[in-house]
Amino acid sequence: MGLFTLSEAQAELTQLLPVLDEIVRLRADAAELAAGPSSLGGLPEFKAAQARLDELLEMVQRTGAELKGFAPLLVDFPSERDGVPVLLCWLEGDRTLAWYHRADIGFAGRRPL
Q: Based on the structure, what is the number of domains in the chain?
């Protein structure tokens, strides 16, 4: 996959938000189920949650976005600013794409767009 323009990454994120929201919800369910029987069920429900999580994570990666973290959920969209390779950075809880960092620096170098 190639680079995203800012508008392409924003459009892709808009499409992905329901998927990302489901990942966050299922991640919590799977953690509760892994701790032992709960009101959510037992081992069969845990396995089903894990299978669905795998499916959703694959959907994110098929877009060309890079899944960089699971808890918290972190998704980067490869891009370029002024000829410099950057990653447009979405962090769990964000509803829009508002941050970026240089590809060679990583999350610690996050800056507002």
A: 1
Three-class DSSP labels, the chain: CCCCCHHHHHHHHHHHHHHHHHHHHHHHHHHHHHCCCECCECHHHHHHHHHHHHHHHHHHHHCCCEEEEECCEEEEEEEEECCEEEEEEEECCCCCCCEEEECCCCHHHCEEC
Q: Is residue 69 part of a domain?
A: yes
65 lies in a domain?
yes
pLDDT digits (tens, 9 = 90+) for 26-72: 999 999 999 988 999 999 999 999 999 999 999 999 999 999 999 99
Domain that holds residue 13: 6-105
Question: Model's pTM, two decimal places?
Answer: 0.92
